[in-house]
Queue: 4 jobs
Job 1
Amino acid sequence: MQQVYIYDALRTPFGRLGGGLAGVRPDDLAATVITTLLERYPNLDQTKIDDVVFGNANGAGEENRNVARMATLLAGLPTSIPGVTVNRLCGSSLDAAFHGSYSIGSGDNDLVITGGTESMSRAPYVVPKPERAYPAGNGQMVSTTLGWRLINPKMPKEWTVSLGEATEQLVEKYGVTRARQDEYAALSHQRAHAAWEAGNYDNLVVAIDDVERDETMRPETTVDTLSGLRTVFRKENGTVTAGNASSMNDGAGVVLMGSEKAATLLDAEPLVRVVSRGAAANEPQYFGEAPVPAANLALERAGITWDQVGAIELNEAFAAQVLVNLDSWGIALDDERVNAWGGAIAVGHPLGASGSRVLGTLARRLKAENRRWGLAALCVGVGQGVAMVVENEDATE
């Protein structure tokens, strides 16, 4: 088995729903980050790129089903480079990194572009195809932006609740207070703003269509302002608001992965080594729990404990989900290891692109903070979780 490394990572700013990136197709978002990333390696013979693996949660619209191949062609890469798209909903682009690492570790490949893309602004409406032509009655148009659609009636009703209602059920199960959720959400915005101001995102984000920073970041956010927001999914006894949950966004990201041999192809040194992966599943309505067993499995496979983990990038689908995860791991809400450069509540969550964001940010954080072990994890709709452990071999701590 070959060692697997992450050499680079790049993403677009994440645009708000209907915002500055709403006019950009998801395949163009993906092509932009691929093109810009490869400009950093002018001596690379692009025919040496073995594969392109992208994550995408929709696939029903301009992604043309296999957006990895479409983006590769739009980016002007040699037509000999294949592309495949994977879908694990919110965890899709981390799953793409799983696939890239598998192929490199096995020795089949030496250089793979992985990533993800999503335009929730441009997600199409779909109309179910009738069983017979010209049926009587009205048709139904369904949004593909987020959540369940065209639900199979055989599915148990408790599994098919909205993500927000599922999070409210998680809140009830674990007794997570509204105050703690708002406290964590405010911290996410403050950390994201501080990271942008410090230049931490300068080599991680490429501006596109005059959008230079994540559009949903609000540095003025405080616990007091969040506490005044109305709940969204439950009018009575609800806790989840637009302020303590991630938003719907547009964006794309890439992670350049390779073997030790890839260092020669790229004329570059790797950032971190990929050590282990973990995927887990549980009851669909408790999707927010699933990063816990996924991360625990990844740590077990890496042979390390939580005390050794120096940086954690945990996707913030909902503040309540983050708190349930951290409580399960015995980690404090304000632990500096967790999402130190902000998370999805502040920067956004364009489904298929979020895995590449957390993984790329983790790799850069480990280098910037001189930490050895890092963990990237995401919850996934319909009750799944994914996680990856990476190592900064140059760390002196």
Job 2
Amino acid sequence: MVAFFQSLHKTLAAGVVLLIVLIILVGLISGQFIRLDSVWWTFFVRWLHIMTGVMWMGLLWYLNFVQTPTVPKIEPPEHRAAITKYIAPNVLFWFRYSALATVIFGLLLAGMKKYIVQALTFQPPAYVIGIGMWLALIMAFNVWFIIWPNQKKILGIVNATAEEKAAAGRLAGMTSRINTMLSIPMLYCMVAQNNAGL
């Protein structure tokens, strides 16, 4: 059993199987089985949007609340290399692709719900989610075009001098903090549109 859960792929596959079993059980108990119509597909894209968004925000907050403040405290300093060489590149891979997937699923969902134009142009009734969408788009832009290019310098993926690495660290760190700040109203707007009577 322990060996099974040491594999991320097996764990994810088990999660999908568990989801399918739960869907079937709920269908059997309630007598209402999933109908693969437009309503279900809209729900499914919303679920994917939320799943990828949880990963993106989780990694953003992990970086800002855990990794960034903790790494300078690691003694001796040579041990910090393990973070830079192994953990940070992996975190940043999932960080940027979960941001991309969240945006894609969010735009797809807005298109399926037929409010994409209203949301992106701040028209009622989708102006609140539109604010959230724009904040998320700014954050995703920051991830791909500011944080990641600078992290590549810091991690040694791209050649950079010590001064360039220091400047890249400051810019990436500040932009990550800006994203953390933006995540608070962004998440509020995403939830408020359907749940706060806005």
Job 3
Amino acid sequence: MFGFFNNKVFDKGWLPPYEGHEIYYQQMGNPKGEVVLNFHGGPGDCCKESHGQYFNLKKQRVIMFDQRGCKRSKAEDIVSLNDTKRLLKDAKRVLDHLGIKDKVIVSGGSWGSTLALLFAERYPEITKSLVVYSIFLARREDMEWMLRDSALFYPDLMEEIRRQSEGENPYTHYAKLIFSEDLGSIQTAVKYMSNYERILGRTDAKFEDVRIDNEVINSSRIALYYAANRYFLEDNEILKNIDKIRDIPTLIFHNRLDMCCPLKGAWDLYRSLDKAQIEVIADRGHGGKKLKKAVKKHF
């Protein structure tokens, strides 16, 4: 019925150079299927074949891309002309490059959910529906959870992070360290701030050293650069502009015990929309197999 499909990447390439960046994109699924534009998380992560597991690749054509400075996307300077609004423009450029003219499903998880919602608010005329999971709204209260309230569960680690930051905002402090030329400072930034977000999203709650290589350093640099700049957003920007997408059908999925992005953000989003459904998964951690299955069954 649906013709050829591929559960691997069937097409990939780069957009023409623009503002010092060449954006990598890839496609999975049915080339003639319903188009899904999927945003990866991070900031600083990349698109992966495993992201295709959220969708029905027999029916859907899933388009993904590595955001500016991330992994396979090429850059003269990974953070030069790199901000949230430019990421949204890059997503539209990917669709234009591939000749997508019809409305698309817009999707993403974690930071990817932030971008998916912002993209829909910027381009509601081409957004057919939204499918978002592990919601992160990038509000002040979401950042305060990370830098203050999570200390209820990790007082030892947060005490050390505050000690090292010496009264400065930890994101600002560690961003300075990771952009230095001193390897010890870079390792400290990765070990504490970047690693802290990682363990909050896991289920075993172990704090341990992580491998340090150029890929990890670049990813951490982008993550801290965005966080130190409050994700280049006004506070609560998504919900302040929710009227632009209030009537767009939206599916929201979230693990109840997500320690990285607490459920309240997903609930606040759900309560702000007129055509939204929410499924709270009885699981812990930031993502996981149960979450993927819950999303996929709706396709």
Job 4
Amino acid sequence: MTIRKSLPKTRRWVVKIGSALLTDDGKGLDVEAISGWVEQMAGLRAEGLELVLVSSGAVAAGMTRLGWAQRPTAVHDLQAAAAVGQTGLVQAYEQEFQKYGLQTAQVLLDHDDLSSRERYLNARSTLRALIGYGVVAVVNENDTVVTDEIRFGDNDSLAALVANLIDAELLVILTDQQGMFDADPRSNPDAQLISEVAADDASLMAMAGDGGSLGRGGMITKVRAAKLAARSGAHTVIAGGRIERVLPRLYAGEAVGTLLVAKQQPQTARKRWLSGQLQVKGRLVVDEGAARVLCQQGRSLLAVGVKSLTGSFNRGDMVACVDLQGRELARGLVNYGAKDALRILGRSSGEFESILGYGGDDELIHRDNLVVGE
């Protein structure tokens, strides 16, 4: 079965919509177009597909509301435009999704939220909880306060990081082009649409061009995003947002846009990416039962099976799990800092709230954040 034909069997997507689409190339927030995309996403949700939406457009929408024809360069002006535009953007999505009985949630992130280990776990837990409740999370960069991201960031990369974060199988980047071409179609009438290519194909960067005046991304950022998404095994589709019923057609396996293929299975690739990114900050000594569960059953690590710990680590840090003889069995992102973890060692999760004064995660390390045998 080809990758495209397998898309109807996928369960979780990240959909990113760019500024040029959302603002009709700078003419103001295109509510009619938003209504169309929301209708498509609502239909996919009815099919059982889980969706997280990454939406650009706050700065561009704010520019229109403020009557600015050109994107400003001063940081405080960009922040002001983002603050003004974000309210209208989220309100538009909320009104449209409610027509289909779907609740939305605004989630503002920056790249630091996903590189900080503690904030990574917090963001992951929140997004997964929203998905579990059937809520459509609308994610955007926190442009109002994060100056570095306004200067250098792009929502293509953020969308790829969100795909990594929630274990999405597909990242869909909707743009004002039909897909990715082997040359710039705006200047080369002989340019050919690329239907399918490996995400790590070395020739892709040479084919990519620069972004437009409204957005911060071009095809270069989309290629980089596809490579980033592929780290956790997610494929990427770059497709025209104005293509009729583009999302249902992708879900049906039609050859729409450009498919950038990840070479590895999602869970294997994600855990390899996870283990390769982080340094070990501590060690948890597990008993024989916990060692058996980790190595043979691939289950989460519970505090009840941990005998002792060493190291000074915080929530979200990478720690090693070792047996009673000191042999390393696994590594993972810990859900509790060393001080709190020490207090709950050997105890069941039902006792955590009375011991710590708050109700946290049931697992010391969740299996999704655990790499065995590394």
